[in-house]
Specification:
- Residues 114-199 form the Cyclic nucleotide-binding domain.
- The protein is an alpha+beta fold.
- Among the domains are: 8-93, no CATH class; 111-188 and 243-294, Jelly Rolls, CATH 2.60.120.10.
- The chain contains 16 helices and ten strands.
- The protein has helices at 2-5, 11-19, 29-46, 54-67, 74-81, 95-111, 120-129, 181-184, 198-207, 213-220, 222-236, 262-271, 273-291, 295-304, 326-330, 369-433, and strands at 131-135, 140-142, 150-156, 159-162, 169-173, 178-179, 248-251, 255-261, 309-311, 354-356.
- The protein has a four-stranded antiparallel sheet with strand order 1-8-3-6. A four-stranded antiparallel sheet has the order 2-7-4-5, with no helix packed on it. The chain has a two-stranded antiparallel ribbon with strand order 9-10.
- A hairpin with a 6-residue loop joins strand 4 (159-162) and strand 5.
- It binds adenosine-3',5'-cyclic-monophosphate.
- Adenosine-3',5'-cyclic-monophosphate binds next to strand 5 and helix 8.
C-alpha cells in the first residue's frame, strides 16, 4: 500500500496494467510511446527472454522517458550504465532480490543527507561504487586517530560513535546514517605520519638551522630546498592532510553497511565540483555539531588541516623571516638582505589567529586575491554571529576552493622555476670545484 501511494508498482500490478486495454487510452501520445517502450523492455529484457537487440529497446525506453520529462530514478541510470552486466535471464531473479535492490537504492536516495538534492549522475556514480559489508557485534569499524580511507552508510543495524575511553557514547547511528566522511574529505585531525601539520614542519626545518645559516642554506643546501618544496607542495596536496579519524565507531549488533573508498569518492568528486562544495559544507556543519563549538573554532580546525593556511602565533612567524622573493632571488636576481634572527625559532602555540600568506613574499606563500576574500569572509563570520555564520561557511569553502586552485598553480610554477635555478647552481658548483 505504501508503495502504491508513492507511485511504485510491483511486478503483478505492472502485468495487470499491461493487460488493461483502457490504460493506454487515457495517455497522451508521448506518454503512450513511453509506456509501449517500457512494455517492450519488460517483455524483451526484464523477463525470461533477452532479445538480441535489448540494448536498443532499453535505450529507446530511456529516450521516451526523457521526452516526457519523467524523473529518472537511480535504477534507470543504473540500467543505462550497466546494461552489459545484466544476466541473460532476469526472470530467474526473484521478487525478493528485486525488492532488496530497490531498498538499497531507496536508502541512498531518500535517507542519506549527502545524497539528497545532488545531481543524478553524481549519485549514480557513487552508488555504483558502493560495496556492502557486514560487521559483527562489538566490531570496530574505525578507530580514532587512524588514517581514514573509507566512509560508510548504514543500511541496517545500530552503531555507536564512542569517545576516547571506548565507553562514552557520542552518538548512535542507524539505517540511513553515514559516517567516516570527515577524514576522507580531509577535515579531520591534521597531519601525515608524524601527525605534524605542514606549518609545524616549516618550523621543524627552520629549527635545524642556525640563524646565520638561513640565507646561505636557502640558496645552497639542496636538502633544505627539497624539504621546503615538499612541505610547500604538501600544503596544496589537499588529500594528504586532515585525514585522521575524529572518533571510533563500533557495531552494536550485526550491521549491514555500504562502504565507499576515499579514492572512489575523490574520483567522482573531481567530475562534480559543485557536489564537492556541498559535501564539504555539510561536513563543516557536522563537525561544528560534533565539536559543539562556534563557527570560527570549526573553521580553525579545518584551517589547521587546510593547505595554505598556516598558524602564525609563534614568536618569529615564518613570514617575518624575510626570505628573498622568487623573482629577485631564486630566479637569478641578487639575494635580498636577510634580517638576522634575533630570537630562536620556537614551536608556535596552538592556532589562535590565522593568516594567509601572499605569493609575493616567499615561494612558500599563497596567491592572495582569493585568500583575502576567504579571510574577509572568515572575519565577517566571526563578527556577525551564528545566523550569518552558516551562510559564510559556504562562502568560505568556495573561496578556499578557488584559492587552493590558484595556490596549486602558483606552487607548481614556483617549483618548476626553483628546479631550474637549482640545476643552474649545481652546475656552477660542479664547475667551480671540478666535480
Ligand atoms: N560526535 C559525533 N557524533 C556523530 N558522529 C560523529 C561524531 N564524531 C565523529 N563522528 C563520525 O565518526 C566518524 C569517525 O571517522 P571520521 O572522523 O572520518 O568521521 C567521523 C564522523 O562521521
Amino acid at each position: 500500500m505504501e508503495k502504491l501511494k508513492g507511485g511504485i508498482f510491483d511486478g503483478p500490478q505492472i502485468r495487470q496494467l499491461m493487460k488493461d486495454t483502457d490504460f493506454i487510452k487515457v495517455m497522451t501520445v508521448p506518454e503512450s510511446d513511453a509506456w509501449k517502450s517500457f512494455v517492450l523492455v519488460v517483455e524483451n529484457f526484464l523477463g525470461n527472454h533477452k532479445a538480441p537487440n535489448y540494448e536498443e529497446i532499453v535505450q529507446n525506453m530511456l529516450t521516451n522517458f526523457q521526452t516526457i520529462g519523467a524523473n529518472m530514478s537511480i535504477k534507470l541510470h543504473y540500467l543505462r550504465n550497466h546494461l552489459d552486466k545484466f544476466p541473460d535471464n532476469l526472470g530467474n531473479y526473484s521478487e525478493e532480490q528485486g525488492e532488496r535492490f530497490h531498498q538499497d537504492l531507496k536508502v541512498m536516495e531518500e535517507r542519506v543527507e549527502i545524497f539528497q538534492n545532488t545531481e543524478a549522475g553524481f549519485l549514480c556514480e557513487l552508488v555504483l561504487r558502493l560495496r556492502p559489508v557486514l560487521f559483527s557485534p562489538g566490531d570496530y569499524i574505525c578507530r580514532k586517530g587512524e588514517v581514514g580511507k573509507e566512509m560508510y552508510i548504514v543500511n541496517r543495524g545500530k552503531l555507536q560513535v564512542v569517545g576516547d575511553n571506548g565507553k562514552t557514547v557520542l552518538a548512535t547511528l542507524k539505517a540511513g546514517c553515514y559516517f567516516g566522511e570527515i577524514s576522507i574529505l580531509n577535515m579531520g585531525t591534521a597531519g601525515r605520519g608524524s601527525g605534524r601539520t605542514p606549518s609545524n614542519r616549516f618550523w621543524d626545518i627552520g629549527r635545524t638551522l642556525e640563524p646565520a645559516d638561513w640565507r646561505f642554506s636557502f640558496y645552497t643546501n639542496t636538502r633544505i630546498h627539497h624539504e621546503l618544496l615538499s612541505v610547500g607542495t604538501e600544503c596544496v596536496d589537499d588529500t594528504s592532510t586532515g585525514n585522521r579519524r575524529t572518533a571510533s565507531v563500533r557495531s552494536v549488533g550485526y550491521s549491514d553497511l555500504f562502504v565507499l573508498s576515499k579514492k572512489d569518492m575523490w574520483d567522482v568528486l573531481k567530475e562534480y565540483p559543485a557536489a564537492r562544495v556541498r559535501l564539504e559544507a555539510i561536513a563543516v556543519k557536522r563537525l561544528e555539531k560534533y565539536k559543539k563549538a562556534p563557527l570560527e573554532k570549526v573553521a580553525m580546525g579545518r584551517c589547521q588541516s587546510t593547505p595554505g593556511l598556516v598558524e602564525t602565533t609563534g614568536r618569529v612567524p615564518i613570514e617575518e623571516m624575510e626570505l628573498p622573493t622568487v623573482s629577485a632571488g631564486v630566479l637569478g636576481g641578487a639575494p635580498l638582505p636577510l634580517q638576522p634572527l634575533t630570537q630562536p625559532l620556537t614551536q608556535p602555540p596552538p592556532c589562535k589567529d590565522l593568516q594567509l600568506y601572499g605569493a609575493s613574499a616567499s615561494p612558500l606563500r599563497a596567491a592572495s586575491p582569493v585568500a583575502s576574500c576567504a579571510s574577509s569572509v572568515r572575519s565577517s563570520a566571526a563578527g556577525a554571529g551564528s545566523a550569518r555564520g552558516h551562510l559564510d561557511s559556504h562562502e568560505v569553502l568556495e573561496c578556499e576552493l578557488k584559492r587552493l586552485r590558484e595556490r596549486l598553480h602558483t606552487v607548481e610554477t614556483e617549483n618548476a622555476a626553483m628546479s631550474v635555478k637549482l640545476s643552474q647552481q649545481q652546475w656552477e658548483v660542479d664547475q667551480r670545484y671540478g666535480a
